Amino acid sequence: MPSEAERPVALVTGTNRGTGRAIAAALHRRGYRIRSLNRTLSGEDWLGELRCDLTDPGRIAECVAEAVAGTGRLDVCVANAVDRAFGPLADLPARDWDRLVAINLTSVFHLIRHTLPALRTSAGLFVAMGSHAATRFFEGGAAYSATKAALKALVETLLLEERGNGVRACLISPGAIANLDGDEAPYKMSTGSVGDCVAAVIDGWPRDVVVGELEIRPAGLPAPPVTGIDRLLHV
Questions:
Q1: Of 136, 206, 201, which is closest to residue 172 (Cα–Cα)?
Q2: Which of 44, 47, 39, 40 is nearest to 67 (CA)?
Q3: Which of 23, 90, 170, 215 has the most CB atoms within 10 Å of its CB?
Q4: Mean per-residue pLDDT for 185-198?
Q5: Is 184 helix (H, G, I), strand (E, B) or coil?
Q6: So what's the pLDDT on residue 231?
Q7: Is this structure's pTM higher than 0.90?
Q8: 136 HSE (CA, 13 A, CB side)
Q9: What are the sequence ranges of the domains in the chain?
Q10: pLDDT at 233
């Protein structure tokens, strides 16, 4: 059994519920010590929470420094926290756009900057949670889709620049997730399943392999729309 100091450390944002909590739980089961950056704290000791507003670059820097100093290492960072605001461009409040850019994109930049020294030391991995919305655009989704699309460029550039320093980077882009309490939609992935997939990328691949990008989709599909002559069966 490894000593406490020998156990790997994962820093995950947004672990107080949903997908982030599932990712943290899956890594914890694999023996990782968890440190979390959460705006709202759950109060559970195993999450190693630090209160952090991801729109505040200074607070991100403080929390990363505290997490690394407290554990003595950092092996993985998972940028999971996300905000959403939907509405047509003509009506979307500028404050909503600015908030999504700050949380979904700019905070990831600051996480990269402040975790890189420790990740270089551990030959670690930076994971960013993307979305199918980055390539499958929809009305009312401009702010969300734009921030998720930009993550691809950010993560790929990180991989190109830091692979020579031993740091790997991965963008994981899931489809529909049952991410809200009480959501039991049969055609969405469970948060637990997504958490297990993320943990497998982090802890299940050989260290001489990097998964630069991974897309995951729900296995089930709703019935397709009725088209063509088959419409006659439904009138």
A1: 201
A2: 47
A3: 23
A4: 92
A5: coil
A6: 65
A7: yes
A8: 10
A9: 4-234
A10: 56
3-class DSSP assignment, residue 98:
helix
The DSSP symbol for 216 reads E
Nearest to 215 by CA among 176, 172, 177: 172
Q: Tell me the average pLDDT across 25-31.
A: 98
Task: Yes or no: say if 81 and 37 are a contact pair by the CB < 8 Å rule.
Answer: yes
Residue 234 pLDDT greater than 60, yes or no: no
pLDDT at residue 4 is higher than 60: yes
Cα–Cα distance for residue pair 128/149, rounded to 1 Å: 12
Radius of gyration over alpha carbons of the chain, in Å? 19
3-class SS of residue 79? strand
Q: What is the pLDDT of residue 228?
A: 67
Model confidence band, residue 232 (pLDDT cutoffs 50, 70, 90): low
The topology under which CATH files domain 4-234 is: Rossmann fold (3.40.50)
Sorting pLDDT into bands at 50, 70 and 90, what band is 229? low
Q: What's the DSSP call for residue 222?
A: P
CA angle 146, 84, 111 (to 5 degrees): 70
Asked if 160 and 212 count as a contact pair (C-beta separation under 8 A), the reply is no
Q: Under 8 Å CB-to-CB from 209, ≥6 apart: which residues?
A: none
d(CA 232, CA 235): 6
Which of left, alpha, beta for 171 (phi over 0: left; psi -120 to 50: alpha)? beta
